[in-house]
Amino acid sequence: MRVDICAVGRLRTGPEQTLIKDYQTRFDRTGRALGLGPLSLTEVEDKKGGGMAAEAALLRRAAPTGARLCVLDERGKTVTSPEFADLLATWRDQGVGDAAFLIGGADGLHPDLRQEADVTLSLGKMVWPHMLARVMLTEQLYRAASILAGSPYHRS
Fold this sequence. Notes:
Blueprint: E1 2-8, H1 15-31, E2 39-44, H2 51-62, E3 68-77, H3 81-93, E4 98-103, H4 111-116, E5 119-121, H5 130-149
Parallel strand pairs: 1-2, 1-4, 3-4, 3-5
Helix pairs in contact: 1-5, 3-5
């Protein structure tokens, strides 16, 4: 199952990008044997200033056709890392070809896009900058793969 992160905004060179690339490499390496990956990141940018509706349209186009959609939103469900791993394994075992994780911009995701999602997850009760949300998501994807692989990375 291919995994895509579709996010609003461009990530510039810096520590966040370094962390994302590291976790992306780890996920790809660990996930390959599990039928997970590769992990790709698609960035979209609303250059015309259309707000959340325009960002939602760009995110929809960035997500692969037929992908299971998971949006990250502060109103979403909080899950444990093992529960997140189970979600990925369930989708993979159901034969899902693509899973797309959508991260909105500074104003969040358009309500219609949240309604279209198969799953809405929250990274916690606090609001995180969307650039850090990318780092946290890529780490959790790697952690999920390591849990499914039986690796000692995750200690519960």
